[in-house]
Amino acid sequence: MKKKNKSSFLGKLIKFFDKKIVIPLTRLILKIANTFDKSSHSLEKIFANQTTLLFISLAMALFIFLFVDQKKLQLVNNSAEVFKNQPVTVDYNEERFVLEGVPENVDITLIGSKADLYIAKQKSDHTVKIDLNDIKNEGTYKVDLDYKISSNINATVNPSQATIRVYLKKSENRTLSSTIVNADKLDSSLGIDKVTLNVDQVIISGAEHNLEKVATVEALVDMEKLNTKSAGTQTLDDILLRAYDAEGNIVNVEINSKEKVKAEVTISSSSREVPLNFVMKEGTHMPFGKAISSFSFSQSTVTAYGPQSILDDLEKDGIDIEFDVSKLSSDYKGTVDIPTPNGIKKLSVSKVTLNIKVTNSVSSPQYNMTLSPNAINTPSGYTPGFFSKADSEILIKPTCAENVCKSLSSADLEAYVDLSSLATAGPGTYKVQVKYRAKTSNARLAEYTISPSEIRIKLTKN
Fold it and tell me: Burial letters for 114-151: b for 16+ Cβ neighbours within 10 Å, e otherwise?
């Protein structure tokens, strides 16, 4: 049974070759043979032989198969590789010209066999180079971007063309100033006292229209590059120079100096022990009939770090901790936040415990005080004066715990009028509101009624 099937398959294969290859080729050969001289009997006899024709047909079929298969194999083996963001360099007369419009990066597509592309990928540098050494004058030039790597690889560049503007290079001297960057990288207890550059003049070079844009040239002194972030003086060598226009945008120019720019940075750690003040929050009042007899903090001072000038004022005035007393009908103990004053970089602690003792309040004429108000923020070129004697005396009535009221004197308070609203008013007589300021810790525990609440001030031109 198997033998019969095998014979049947072989017969079908012979019929297929006979029908599709032998017969068509025989007809073609006979047609060619007929064109030759009729006397060429030997050639005709050879071509008429069926076995010969079969071998010729098989040889031609094999040749066609190999030819097509080879082309197909070559086509299948071709691959593509894309190299993104490859650098572009230009060869040109850098002493005479500056360029604009040169693309910083391009994409390169390579097409070739996998083997060739593998070798190409091993190359670390795929820089596209533009040669402008032949350019002698200013102008706009269109150049093709080409990339050659191997005769077996087809390379295309995107973009394939660049429009490059060539300008004559010009130079100017400019003043160099310093700008501190990354100051927040320093510990909050440290401050930058001084930055000194060893160079105060630099040369900027570029196209004339760019030089005209430059408003400032800055040396960027980077605090993150300090060797040690502690108090003392250090020198930074790696200083970045930048040119900016009036709006703070970077201008594309070259910046050079006769010597390497260095910066000497002096860092200090200024601190002071600053007192804490208890202050009733503005707009809040003790419940009726109640007053604060005493208070205490878990610590009376904190260490503040910051500029010397601010620390000097804080050492004298202290830090006010405002407390809402509107619901304070009995003793209180709790934690309160210490506000960080403007300009202060750090406080040694951020919270303290506050203890308050509450008692009944008193308000008696025997504790009343009479003060003469001071004028502050007087307009320049003017002298303030009271319109009458009645305007020069302010009656202050305290409401407080009896022990507090007994300790008060006129030295604990200041009455004043703020004349800043009269800066453009000119000479004349004006009504202004009277305010008061508690100067001691005991004085801050009382509430006050002042009379009159407004007085008349006369401004006289000097």
Answer: eebbeebeeeeebebebebeebeeeeeeebebebebee
Across residues 22-27, what is the average pLDDT?
A: 68
Q: Retrieve residue 341's tokens.
A: 């004053």
Structural domains in the chain, CATH included, are: 2-77 (no CATH), 78-168 (2.170.120.30), 172-268 (2.170.120.40), 271-362 (2.170.120.40), 365-461 (2.170.120.30)
Cα distances (angstroms) measured from residue 439 to each of 240, 365, 436: 51, 21, 10
* Burial zone of 461 (CB within 10 Å; 0-12 exposed, 13-18 middle, 19+ buried): exposed
Q: What is the reported pTM?
A: 0.52
**Nearest partner of 126 among 113, 109, 142, judged by Cα:** 109
In angstroms, the CA 446 to CA 408 distance is 9
Structure confidence by residue, pLDDT tens digits, 187-209: 777 778 889 999 999 999 999 99
pLDDT digits (tens, 9 = 90+) for 173-183: 999 999 999 98
Closest CA to 399 of 245, 274, 293: 293
Which DSSP helix (H) or strand (E) runs through 408? none
Torsion angle of C-alpha atoms 52, 57, 58, 61, degrees rounded to 10: 160
Other residues' Cβ atoms within 10 Å of the Cβ of residue 338: 20
Distance (Å, whole) CA 273 – CA 259:
45
pLDDT band at 30 (very low <50, low <70, confident <90, very high): low
Both tokens of residue 456? 């008349």
Token pair of 68 as six digits: 């097509």
Interatomic CA distance for residues 455 and 395, integer angstroms:
12
DSSP 170: E
Cis peptide before 159 (omega within 30 of 0): yes
79: CB partners within 8 A, 6+ apart? 111, 112, 113, 114, 117
Task: Tell me if 347 sits within 8 A of 340, measured CB to CB.
Answer: yes
CB atoms closer than 10 angstroms to residue 391: 22
Supply angle C-alpha 193, 197, 203, rounded to 5: 150
The model's pLDDT over 224-248, given as tens digits with 9 standing for 90+, comes to: 888 877 778 899 988 999 999 999 9
Q: What percent of the chain has pLDDT over 70?
A: 84
Write out the DSSP string of 254-319.
EEE-SS---EEEEEE--EEEEEEEEEEPTT--PPTTEEEEEEEESSSEEEEES-HHHHHHHHHH-E
Sheet holding 413-418, edge to edge: 374-376, 413-418, 435-438
